[in-house]
Amino acid sequence: MPGSRVGTPRGCSNYRSLDEQAPLTTKTFASLAKHRNFRLYFAGQFVSQIGTWLQNAAQAWLILDLTHSAEAVGFLGFCFYGPYALLGLFGGALADRYNRRRMLLVTQTAMALCAAALAVVTFARVDSVWVVDAIAVVRGVVLVFNNPSRQALIVQMVGRRELPNAIALNSSLNNATRIVGPAVAGVLIATVGIATCFALNAVSFIAVIVALAAIRESELYRQETTERHGSFMRSVRAGLRYARKSKTIAVVLTMLFVVSLMSINFSVLLPVLARQSMHGNAATFGYITAVFGFGAFVGALITASRRRASRGLLLVAATGFGATQVVLAPQHAFAGVAATLFAVGVCYTIYTATTNALVQLATPLFLQGRVGGLYSYVFLATGPVGSLLAGWLAQRGGTSLAFYTSGAAALLMAGIGLLTRPWPMPTGSVHAREGRRLAN
Q1: Would you call 312 exposed, middle or buried from its count of C-beta atoms within 10 A (0-12, 13-18, 19+)?
Q2: Bigger pLDDT: 179 or 214?
Q3: Which long-range contacts (CB under 8 A, 24 or more apart) does 333-338 make?
Q4: Residue 307 pLDDT more than 80?
């Protein structure tokens, strides 16, 4: 969207500086209490994310119904995350050049249209596997431009000092809706059919689109933008260079790469766990996904209540994330699966939210979109291969083999992070001059 920027010329008073910080508070809901824009965004996302989890659960169950194959569910994940693997690095550069709020308005509208298309083809009973996979590819392309702008806009809504709190609260929202969405999806699939889940998701996007339209740009913290007419590829390379030279970001993202590839494949494994390992139905899938989401929600609240992100918390969460998956691997009874999945969810959110906070706090303002986009790239671009791998493991050794493998990978990364020489932890805003030195 050329011609639009969130940043303003020097001397303009319509935007707040990111250096204008209120005193740090340890209150769990501090960023919501202080920032109207974040409250609007949070409320809109709450409604929209319920719809998203409805669709995610219904889509995986639809593929399993059509194919009875864990590998086919894995291939659906490949279709969704594949575009991010190819194009994800470019979305961050665009987020640093153009107005992030307007970018999100476009991408959220596009996602609503994808959900509507899926509802139409399912109601019309033309929901062949290739059609569902094709729509997943389109959603994946939209995600390339959505995620970096979303990450960077949160910084502008709340400022650096309260960024860890806002990230944790955003994670709590995502995981609270993970409780509601799949549980409702299980009921809807059993009563009125899968297509209704897709239609409700399309409608749910209205809430976040209205919220984004109501955000006051005058209340956003000022964004230091890059030159729009500079080399686009040079902008991309600058973000990559900074991430490589900053030890904090390099270590954290290396750990995340392996954990995301090997250990975060729940969209593939949970429906297979419910149907094949537990011999359950759509309701069983909804229940265990909701339990996982409840644990993740509790983990997000724990993270939000902490004063700051830390290396120690990251390593403890990574260790717990791996250990709980190893415990989950042999479980097939509902009680054992539910109790262990709750613990997995707690550790999952603490680990991912802390990783996100450390990366953003260690990044200078003018690189927020690119480095935030790199975080999303590492987190999501591993999805295609990770989904295929999880489906392959589950097809050959059941979910037990898949969870043993994913747990071992997370434990290995926690050990490597512990043995790596202490990396410098961010204690405040990163000076733009130092950021440019590392990026050049």
Answers
A1: exposed
A2: 214
A3: 333/278, 334/278, 334/280, 334/284, 334/287, 334/288, 337/273, 337/278, 337/288, 338/287, 338/288, 338/291
A4: no
Q: What are phi and psi of 221, to 5 degrees?
A: -70, 145
Amino acid at 115: A
Tokens representing 107? Answer: 């991408």
> Is residue 392 pLDDT above 80, yes or no?
yes
Tell me: the pLDDT tens digits for 235-285? 777 778 888 888 888 889 999 999 999 999 888 899 889 988 898 887 888
In b/e form, how buried is each residue of 412-421, taking b as 16+ CB within 10 angstroms? Answer: bbbeebeeee
Asked if 271 and 401 count as a contact pair (C-beta separation under 8 A), the reply is no
Per-domain residue ranges of the chain: 31-216+239-439
Q: DSSP label at 163?
A: H
Taking the C-alpha atoms of residue 253 and residue 88, their distance in angstroms, rounded to an integer, is 15
d(CA 53, CA 272): 17
For the domain made up of 31-216+239-439, the CATH class stated in words is: mainly alpha
What are the structure tokens assigned to 186, written together?
């299980």
CA pair distance 240, 401, nearest whole angstrom: 35
Look at residues 365, 327, 325 and name the one whose alpha carbon lies nearest to residue 348: 325
